[in-house]
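About this split. The held-out portion is used to measure sequence recovery: a designer receives only the structure tokens and must propose an amino acid at every position. Recovery is the fraction of positions where the proposal matches the reference. Here is one held-out target exactly as it appears in the evaluation file.
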């Protein structure tokens, strides 16, 4: 069987890089990967990760999701414009008090995270419908299901992604085109590290002192423990995405971190929103943040123990 052509956006680092390398180095050679990025000058890490499969199972191309001409040129360069799987991964982040974010920055984020996806789908979906086959995989976020304090605009972009895909999935199914949303929680990547480093240095004089203190002294400090305790690696997300891609019946939604299942369940259990809003308020403002950090460190220790048990089982030949 010929390998499937998989086009992935945002491959210069993080999830996109890990997924492109994982698929291209698949031992069964099931995938021919078109790894794209806005600036191909940032491809050194991907080139190193690809190794010997570069130029055979993996090809690097320029694609800017904010530029329709760039998207079309990339798709036109693929023989027959034939894409079996589109993975929309390119995205940007934003964190901090709303008053401190410029409208231009908010619009730029939406242009990448939401309209970037729309541009890709507009270009690729007609070919898939004509062939009566294809799979669109979107790297979304748990924040597309539940807003998180100080992530207002980023969460809004992911809510838009979720609504767009939920609206489109029924029509797509009529043409044998699958749509899947991969929904990670915190992922430890260069993307997140840089975002939070910039947040620590930013000027918060445009908001009131109390809000600035809540963000810098509570949110940023606790975020480090959240990422350390609950964060996944890009390679973890790549493995989850691979399972979605090869599934006989691809799921519409796939959450990569079971730690966030209770949060989603709590929201759906109370349509009025009182439970989830109250729970987050209690967590942020009523409980000593030392309790939260202690709980997160306990989870980190538990995950470390589970990982060591699994590694030991593999060494002994167990699966």
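Reference sequence for scoring:
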């Amino acid at each position: 069987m010929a390998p499937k052509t998989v086009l992935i956006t945002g491959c210069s680092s993080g999830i996109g890089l890990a997924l492109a390398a994982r698929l291209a180095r698949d031992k069964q050679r099931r995938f021919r990967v078109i790894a794209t990025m806005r600036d191909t000058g940032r491809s050194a890490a991907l080139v190193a990760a690809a190794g010997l499969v570069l130029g055979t199972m993996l090809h690097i191309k320029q694609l800017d999701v904010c530029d329709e001409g760039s998207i079309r040129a990339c798709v036109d360069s693929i023989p027959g414009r034939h894409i079996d799987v589109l993975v929309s991964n390119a995205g940007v982040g934003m964190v901090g008090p709303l008053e401190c974010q410029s409208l231009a920055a908010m619009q730029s984020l939406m242009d990448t995270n939401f309209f970037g996806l729309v541009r890709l789908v507009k270009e690729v979906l007609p070919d898939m419908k004509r062939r009566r086959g294809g799979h669109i995989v979107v790297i979304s976020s748990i924040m597309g299901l539940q807003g998180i304090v100080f992530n207002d605009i980023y969460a809004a972009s992911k809510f838009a992604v979720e609504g767009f895909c939920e609206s489109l999935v029924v029509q797509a199914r009529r043409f044998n085109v699958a749509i899947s949303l991969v929904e990670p929680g915190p992922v430890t990547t260069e993307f997140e590290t840089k975002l939070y480093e910039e947040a620590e240095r930013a000027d918060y004089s445009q908001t009131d002192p109390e809000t600035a203190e809540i963000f810098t002294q509570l949110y940023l400090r606790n975020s480090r423990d959240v990422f350390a305790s609950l964060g996944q690696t890009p390679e973890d997300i790549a493995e989850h995405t691979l399972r979605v891609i090869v599934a006989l019946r691809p799921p519409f939604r796939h959450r990569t971190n079971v730690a966030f299942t209770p949060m989603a369940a709590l929201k759906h259990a109370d349509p009025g929103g009182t439970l989830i809003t109250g729970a987050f308020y209690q967590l942020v403002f009523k409980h000593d943040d030392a309790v939260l950090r202690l709980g997160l460190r306990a989870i980190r220790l538990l995950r470390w123990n589970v990982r060591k048990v699994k590694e030991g089982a593999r060494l002994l030949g167990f699966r």
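Annotator remark: Residues 93 and 192 are 8 Å apart (CA to CA).
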